[in-house]
């Protein structure tokens, strides 16, 4: 005589375990994807502020050097105003501080990615996935308010990297062009 209830019990236990693993895997993948989006976002912001800082310094040096030429004597008040304005931009907007903040946030997001990738499927647990979600929430809490279009661009890049190019619609050209300055 066979024992179908035991097989049924084993099948139910296996199904429950598979569902549990699927749930943890889905949480892991969602957190991993969001962390990658953060890496992309903060690296782009870091690059933007680095370029803005270098551009401002370059303009200041070029305008300062132009003051030494005798051909620019008539333009002296305008050049002095431009130099002061460029220096003021760097001071007020704090490009280098913002660049450093986004660098640190990108590194923190990359560490989260590494922590998630380090754990094999057999090592997944709800405690680990909850820990990763907590780390992600702490990262998001430290970050300045995100720029919406830039976030969408980074999310789209990540979706394409994951093989889901239709997951996020690409913003129109002018939105992409202004994504670093317009929220």
Any overview of this molecule?
This protein has 183 residues and is mostly helical. The chain has helices spanning 4-66, 76-93, 95-118, 126-142, 148-161, 173-177. The longest helix has 63 residues, at 4-66. The radius of gyration is 26 Å and the shape is elongated. Residues 1-6 have low confidence and may be disordered.
Measure the end-to-end span.
71 Å
How much of the sequence is in beta strands?
under 5%
Overall SS class: mainly alpha
Specify the helix fraction band: over 70%
Mean pLDDT across all amino acids: 88
Rg estimate, integer Å: 26 Å
How many strand segments? 0
Enumerate how many helices there are, as a single number.
6
- Low-pLDDT residue spans: 1-6
Name the helix and strand elements from N-terminus to C-terminus, one letter apiece: HHHHHH
Write a concise synopsis of the structure shown.
The protein is mainly α and 183 residues long. It has helices at residues 4-66, 76-93, 95-118, 126-142, 148-161, 173-177.
List the helices and strands and how they pair.
Layout: H1 4-66, H2 76-93, H3 95-118, H4 126-142, H5 148-161, H6 173-177
Summary tags:
183 residues, 77% helix, disordered N terminus
């Amino acid at each position: 005589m066979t024992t179908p209830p035991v097989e049924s019990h084993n099948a139910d236990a296996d199904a429950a375990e598979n569902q549990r693993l699927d749930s943890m895997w889905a949480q892991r993948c969602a957190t991993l994807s969001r962390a990658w989006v953060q890496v992309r976002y903060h690296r782009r912001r870091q690059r933007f502020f680095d370029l803005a800082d270098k551009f401002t310094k370059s303009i200041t040096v070029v305008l300062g050097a132009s003051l030494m030429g005798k051909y620019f004597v008539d333009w002296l008040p305008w050049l002095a105003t431009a130099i002061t304005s460029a220096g003021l931009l760097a001071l007020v907007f704090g490009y280098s501080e913002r660049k450093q903040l986004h660098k640190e946030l990108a590194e923190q997001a990359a560490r989260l990615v590494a922590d998630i990738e380090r754990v094999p499927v057999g090592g997944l647990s709800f405690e680990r996935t909850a820990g990763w979600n907590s780390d992600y929430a702490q990262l998001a809490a430290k970050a300045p308010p995100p720029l919406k279009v830039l976030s969408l661009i980074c999310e789209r890049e990540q979706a394409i990297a994951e093989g889901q190019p239709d997951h996020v619609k690409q913003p129109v050209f002018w939105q992409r062009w202004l994504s670093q300055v317009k929220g």
